[in-house]
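User: Run a structure prediction on this.
Assistant: Running it now.
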Amino acid sequence: MVVSGCAEIVKQYRYQLGANLSRLVNQAEFAEMLAEGLVNIPPVTRVTVSAWETGKWEPDTDFLLALLARYAGTGDWREQFARDCLRAKIPEVFDAGVVLFAGELPG
């Protein structure tokens, strides 16, 4: 998924999940889906997701790293969501190759 800006990324993932389920995934459900399987992480709420979608806040980097660590290598959508948001938040790190994700290592 190629999208710029965390707000657009959050919207696209929420709508894409809804399309996969043949129904709209509301912000509270999306928050629950994101937090599933994470421990010792501040809760993600409907208000949080709403603020992300409007661009008022961005997902916290620590949250995204925890999400990435939890789902790395699983093929779960949350892994790619974390990657996309991290790239949007700090492109200078990822575009410069300072940090690479598994599977992106030079051959």
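The chain has a mean pLDDT of 88.
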